[in-house]
Amino acid sequence: MFTRRDSYLSVLVWLAVVVCLALISACTQRGTANPGASREITDDAARRVNVPAKVDRVVSLAPNLTEIVFAVGAGDRLVGRTSYCDFPAEAKAIAEVGDTLHPSLERIIALKPQVVLVSTASQLEVFTNQLEGQNIAVFVTDPHDLEGVFRSVGQIGEIVGEQDQANLLVQKLRERTNAVEAAVKQKQPVRVFYQVSGEPLYTAGHDAFVTDLMRRAGGDSVTGDVPGAWPKYSNESALAARPEAIILPSGGSMGEANSRVAEALRQSPAVLQGRVYKINDDHLARPGPRSVDGLEEMARAFHPDAFKK
Amino acid sequence: MIGTASEIVVSPAQHNRVTLRRTLISCAVLAAALLSAIVLMSLLGSEQLPARASLCALASFGTSTCGLTQDQFDILFQIRLPRIFLAAAVGGSLATAGAGYQALLRNPLAEPYLLGISNGAAVGTMIALVFFGAMEWTRPILAFTGALAATLAVYRLARGRAGATPERLILAGVIVTTFLSSVIVFVTVLMDATRIRSFTFWLLGDLSGTSKALLPVTITITIVGALALTLHARSLNLLMLGERDAFDLGVEVGRVRIVVFVVASLLVGSSVAASGSVGYVGLVVPHLARLSLGSDNRISIPAASLGGALFVIVADTVARTVIAPRELPVGAITALIGAPLFIYLLRRS
Amino acid sequence: MLEARDLTVSYDDRIAVSDVSLSLNTSEITAIIGPNGAGKSTLLRTLNGQLSRSAGTVLLDGEPIERFNRRSISRRIAVVAQEAELRFPVTVLEFVLGGRFAWATHSGWGWETERDLHVAESVLRETQLTDLSARLMNELSGGERQRALMARALATEAPILLLDEPTANLDLSHQATLLRLVRTRCDQHRAAALVVTHDINLAAEFADNILLMKHGRTVHSGRPEAVLRPEILQDVFEIRVLVDAHPVTGGPRVTPVHEKLI
Question: A38-169 has which CATH code?
């Protein structure tokens, strides 16, 4: 039976629907195109991104990208970072927008950046539509090896208008890299196991950024041809690999989590000869300028005699 | 619910009845299969071991290397064999717990995961890992506490005027499971990125972290739990046909219920603490046991325990060899085997 | 054998049974009849110890029932309910053997003895289920299932039988068969039976005593002729009845008189 109360209810429902529709359309208003000058740069996801000619408000959604922004001298133009972006110290003063995987879209938009730097394509789908609707460019830069880092530095330098600084930085980094590679060139590569975590046992695979670094540092990662980036590894194979050195990325943002060698490796030549090296994880897992620090630290660990000064 | 029994030739009822002899024979067969599995699966792994030498070393119980190198010997006895025993303990525990729940709740679909018990144990273990990381022994204890707490929550939620009917229990279990799943996701998100990966893997079942100290405890709990539930098998037979009827016929329903809940929580807690949540074992194995050997718990509970151990040993061997040297979570394999099997079983009934 | 004195049972702030006394004696069948909600089943369930009472006593063989543990009660009192939950496949023989649980030496574990099998086979014969003993319970018809429930109760060899509406789902011939079984048990094995039923005429035919209840209280009790009188019945059931003599048995026959629905 249709009562008066029912008719009031249906009016309310209709009102609610109308209001929602209005809100939705308001939220998806496409911003008017900025008539100011802009340029097109191709990012690592093969997208041609429209970036304003002059960029002074940037948000970085990855710790390594934050480091690169500061390293090219554009730290003053960074207006937003993730909670993991802790280097350099000045970065901590910048507003947080959440974490790498789930940043707050609202916060980003409220900061009114011109460009948002992201490091993985997975963040892309979530953001692109909404941010570009707000006239915010999303730029993907995703280095997988050291060459990629140099390229990233260049790209970011171009975006923020610090090409000279960027080029200088890349040049310096290349010099250091070449020096390391030259020093270890004649040496027999050291068989190394990179332990991401001991229990459960995770290591660096073929696609991991650090695998390239280890190779350049004169190491031969025993898991270098395992498919994937961070595979879960079999204890047996780790034991059978008999690595001569073990890298334990620790400290930095990782804390003391990975401070013990995995059970399966306790009898390895690396452990028996005391060649277990704890290196700051931020130098190894963040593809950025400090990766060359990591490169040097690993090279020194693998071939100490090549660096006697 | 009719299984294959309706298709057997109808011989005099006496011969279909479960007797001590039939039980011993079935268990002996399963135990033999389990032993063979332990030996055979220890020959398989991401590293190739010489078969004959390995068998010889196994036969000598590790006293002689039989020509294996030190590394091969270590792989066999320090890594593989403990892992296989852990798989057996985890599988046996989960299958036994599942059989117990199914009998008590009179529902063939009752399972530790579905009832929220596994998640309760997982939350307990996570608390132990985060706050008492180094002290391994806190894990099974907190896992057991979590499992028991989840059981109590489920029971409380399910209590209605007509008592806790199986339907209400399962519904309450689903509520508790989903709530605890959110808690787990919440805690996982709060952790830093490096731990998230390993936790996600663990939540799907990971037998690679065989702790030398905890393994004997886990095995003991499996055996004790299976024995405890088997010793109540006759009561459970009656309970399976109705709590009121069981009461009338002399079963101390309240006491048996407590025993099953506590023992099952212990079993689930110890296996989740050791290896995360391995799904489907508690559902599929008891089902298969009943289907092939009858609903009498005196035979189906011990059969489920042995069968569960066998099932997880095989599943784990697949998990650690199929993409060697990488590993898959064993829960993924049990689900891959278990889910289609379960659908098939459902359709048959 | 089983006696209740001034029994009061209440739950959920509702008094289900109030001040009821009855006594089950050897070789006697007592029927409890009354409208819905009279408390008949509650009374039955209190007598076997399942429901707890608020006041009064229950005496089993002269002793307060609290003195007995669960299994010894089950050896003395057997309950025949209306239906069994059959979620798992079980054969008729296995089902009936369930009645031997109370005689197991170890609670919870153990195997059936020769005696158990012997008793099971003889009750299967009594209930004419021998040919069906290998079949699964849920393959049986309603009547056959009820006989199986009866067989299980008889297998307990308990001298006191409590039957809760045992004829509810049975057709005419099976109703009579079942109650005849009860009668035989009482006569030949000196059992005592309490039958809760809706069927007044069946009660009149088979019961030695009738307890008439309404709203948890005893309205009248005694021999069928004494209880089944039109004034009493009309008052309790709020419907007009005709009571005459059954043409064959001579006992009271109750016929409700319905107003014509115009």
Answer: 3.40.50.1980
